[in-house]
């Protein structure tokens, strides 16, 4: 995050580690607020790549897993960028503002992904830029968030992925689980924050990450790059893959997995009572597959009532028929829970 935005949040009680807001002084209470009430969270763990130019839409359409040609300024979508082997190198929330497209992804992946995408621009009229420093991303949830947002947005988005733009406030995107993201210039975000924090509970990034986990929305990070075909991480189930569009990197593998029924792993939501926090990339072991890892943690965060909630990609045969354990065959067992969508 920019030093100006960081200093602003520090002055309002934020605890910051490695550029991300961990909490505002009471992590446990903030976790309960994320479960029960209205919250606002600075999402400085996320970054933005801006794509501009006459050929921006066609360029992104040929690189990402979703149909960018269907995107409008009133609609966002999830998408993935894959290697030639069909494995995700990053995943995005994607939207359009005027003539620019914005790709939201893990902040730690922005430099590498911007560089990789730039390799394929060639003669296209496209300009890629890191917009992470000029904009702030806020996450809002809970009934009180709706009332708070009406101060700046006359008409709020009514369903997931609907987008509303308000020049004086920024871009508001509705997300699954009755949540919103507000993207604004840093100076605008500073003006809005105090008003929002007066009626909502300020919480750290981990609370928002927990809500993403509970809604079954994965985030690819350096520890999980090049590990999963999109369907393994349920990207097809959250509308991030279009199987009718033309070619993009890894498209042949992704399509073959879909149509030949070769998908042997899926992402699940689970809870684990572990002594130490699970981390992305941690391996999982199953009684159905002795001697080798049967899955991997995608994302994990502290649960409000103790323990940890996580998203994990595991062997489909292990989902209902075996005990899945964290880090080793003797590790704590995962309690697999229902996702908000059907696997």
Keyword list:
single chain, 343 residues, alpha+beta, Gyrase A, domain 2, Elongation Factor Tu (Ef-tu), domain 3, 2 domains, six-stranded antiparallel sheet, 23% helix, globular
Lay out the secondary structure:
Elements: H1 3-10, E1 15-17, E2 20-23, H2 27-36, E3 39-42, E4 46-52, H3 56-61, E5 77-82, E6 88-97, E7 100-106, H4 110-118, E8 127-130, E9 135-141, H5 143-149, E10 163-166, E11 170-175, E12 179-185, H6 186-199, E13 201-202, H7 205-214, H8 251-259, E14 265-272, E15 283-286, E16 295-302, E17 308-315, H9 316-321, E18 324-326, E19 335-337
Parallel strand pairs: 3-13
Antiparallel strand pairs: 1-2, 3-9, 4-7, 4-8, 5-6, 6-7, 9-12, 10-11, 11-12, 14-17, 14-19, 15-16, 15-18, 16-17
Helix pairs in contact: 2-7
Structure summarized in a few sentences:
This protein is an alpha+beta fold and about 350 residues long. The chain has 9 helices and 19 strands.
Note down, in words, how this protein is organized.
The protein contains 9 helices and 19 strands. It is α+β, with helices and mostly antiparallel strands. A 6-stranded mixed beta sheet has the order 10-11-12-9-3-13, sandwiched between helices. A 6-stranded antiparallel beta sheet has the order 18-15-16-17-14-19. Helix 2 (27-36) packs parallel to helix 7. The chain is globular. The two termini are 36 Å apart. The mean pLDDT is 95.
How many domains, in number, for the residues?
A: 2
Report the average pLDDT across residues.
95
Radius of gyration: 20 Å
User: Superfamily at the CATH H level of the largest domain?
Assistant: Probable tRNA modification gtpase trme, domain 1
Structural class: alpha+beta
